[in-house]
Design a protein that fits this description.
With about 400 residues, the protein is α+β, with helices and mostly antiparallel strands. It has 11 helices and 11 strands.
Length: about 400
C-alpha cells in the first residue's frame, strides 16, 4: 500500500464540509474598487509584487536549515545520514523520493505562505522517510466532534482525505481569529494591487491604440475640419511608416508634446502604488531597484529586512519543526535553525568584517571562519584568540 493510501478518507464523527475549487477561487479572488479580480497568479503579473515575493522566497531558500543538539555546554550540528535518511538528510540533501533539492523545497513552502497565507508539510509514517508539500489551495484544518485536529486535502483526482495533525507541519502568516487559517499578503494588499492591475490595463489600451507622439502643428493657411484631419492623418502615417513626419513649407510652427500633465500624474501614481506594494511585502525599496538611498543606508535597510521581514518566516519555521519533527524527550536539547549568516555572502566586505570581529573576540576560530567560505583549514587554525587588552571584570580594580 502506498503512503498516499494511508491517509484517512474521513475522521470519526466528522462534521466537516467541502467546497469546490471554483468556490475556493471565489474566496481567494475578491473584486476590488478598481474593478479588477485579484488572485495570487494575477498579482504576480505586477512586477513589484512578483519581485518582492521572489526575493523573500529565494532568500529563505538559500539559507541552510540545520539541526543542532546541545550536550551540556557543547552544541553540535547533527550530520545528514543517507542510511537512516534522518531529518538533517531530508532538509539538507533531499526531502523526498523525487529528488527535490532543499532550495526547491523551502522556496515552495514560502511561496505558499506569501500568496495563500498557509503552507502544509506532510511527513507520512512511511519508509523511506518523506517530506511532502500539500498545495494550500486544496488543504485546510478541520475538527471532528471530539475536538481532534485533522487536515483535509483534496487531490487532483477529486479524492478527499483527512490526515492526522501529527503528520502535518502547518506554517502560516497573518492568522485569522481562529489561529488555524493564515491569510496571504494579497488579502490585505488586494486593493493596492488591483489599482496597479487597472493602471496596467489602461497602459495596454493606450499602447494598443498606438501611443503615438503628440504635436502642435500650425499651418500658414486656415484649415477646415477635413483639412485638419488630412494633416493629422499624414502625421500619424509618417510616424507609423518611418518614425518621422515630413511636411512642406506651409507648416509655420511644429512643437512636439512630450507628455501631458495628466499622463505624468498617472505615471507618478503608478510609482507611488509600487511603493505601497513594497511596504505590504516588507521590502526595502533599494532591493526592488526603486531606492536612491546611500550605501550605508541601504545596508541598514537590509538589516531591518532580515529582522523585520525574513524572521517572520524563519522563526515560526524553526519552532514548528522542533515541535512537529522531534520527539518530546528530544525537544529540550535539540532544535532547528536557519543559518542567517549565509545571507552575508552577498556582501563580502560585511562578511569579512563580521568574521574578523568574532575571531579577535574569541567567538570563532580562524578555521571556523574559513569553513563558512568553503576554504580548507590550516594548522593551528582551531585556536581561539582574544585581543590582548581585555581583562576579566574586577582585575586591578580591587585593593
Amino acid at each position: 500500500m502506498g503512503f498516499l493510501a494511508k491517509a484517512r478518507t474521513a475522521p470519526k464523527n466528522s462534521t466537516t464540509s467541502t467546497v469546490t475549487l471554483s468556490e475556493v477561487g471565489d474566496l481567494l479572488s475578491p473584486t476590488t474598487a478598481a474593478g479588477e479580480i485579484v488572485t495570487p497568479e494575477r498579482s504576480k503579473s505586477v512586477a513589484t509584487a512578483y519581485r518582492a515575493g521572489n526575493i523573500i522566497g529565494d532568500d529563505v531558500a538559500k539559507m541552510p536549515f540545520q539541526q543542532f543538539v546541545r550536550v551540556g555546554r557543547d552544541i553540535q550540528q547533527v550530520a545528514p545520514d543517507p542510511m537512516t535518511m534522518n531529518l538533517p538528510y531530508l532538509i539538507e540533501v533531499s526531502p523526498n523520493q523525487w529528488g527535490w533539492t532543499p532550495f526547491q523545497f523551502k522556496k515552495q513552502i514560502i511561496d505558499w505562505e506569501i500568496w495563500h497565507g498557509n503552507a502544509y508539510i506532510w511527513r507520512p509514517p512511511v519508509w523511506p522517510p518523506q517530506l511532502l508539500i500539500l498545495p494550500a489551495n486544496r488543504t485546510k484544518a478541520v475538527f471532528d466532534l471530539d475536538g481532534n485536529l485533522w487536515y483535509e486535502h483534496r487531490f487532483l483526482n477529486g479524492k478527499v482525505v483527512h490526515i492526522p495533525s501529527v503528520e502535518i507541519m502547518h506554517l502560516l502568516i497573518n492568522p485569522d481569529s481562529t489561529g488555524f487559517n493564515g491569510r496571504g499578503i494579497i488579502t490585505f494588499a488586494c486593493e493596492t494591487i488591483g489599482k496597479q492591475l487597472g493602471a496596467h490595463k489602461i497602459q495596454s489600451k493606450n499602447y494598443a491604440k498606438g501611443m503615438k507622439a503628440s504635436a502642435y502643428i500650425q499651418m500658414a493657411t486656415k484649415l477646415d475640419k477635413p483639412g485638419r484631419e488630412r494633416v493629422r492623418d499624414s502625421y500619424e502615417e509618417a510616424l507609423e511608416s518611418y518614425g518621422l513626419a515630413v511636411f512642406d513649407s506651409s507648416i509655420v510652427k511644429f512643437e512636439p508634446v512630450q507628455m501631458k500633465n495628466t499622463d505624468a500624474q498617472f505615471l507618478q501614481q503608478i510609482g507611488a502604488t509600487n511603493e505601497d506594494i513594497a511596504n505590504f511585502f516588507g521590502m526595502p525599496l533599494h532591493m526592488l531597484n526603486m531606492g536612491k538611498q546611500a550605501y550605508n543606508s541601504n545596508d541598514q535597510k537590509f538589516g531591518e529586512y532580515l529582522q523585520g521581514t525574513l524572521d517572520a518566516y524563519l522563526v515560526p519555521f524553526e519552532q514548528a519543526a522542533r515541535i512537529r519533527w522531534l520527539p518530546a524527550e528530544e525537544q529540550g536539547r535539540s532544535y532547528f535553525r536557519f543559518i542567517r549568516e549565509s545571507l552575508l555572502r552577498m556582501n563580502a566586505k560585511t562578511r569579512a568584517e563580521t568574521n574578523e570581529i568574532k575571531i579577535r573576540s574569541g567567538q570563532m576560530t580562524p578555521n571556523e571562519a574559513r569553513e563558512k567560505d568553503d576554504e580548507s583549514a590550516y594548522t593551528d587554525g582551531d585556536r581561539f584568540y582574544m585581543t590582548s587588552n581585555y581583562a576579566p571584570i574586577g582585575d586591578g580594580n580591587e585593593e
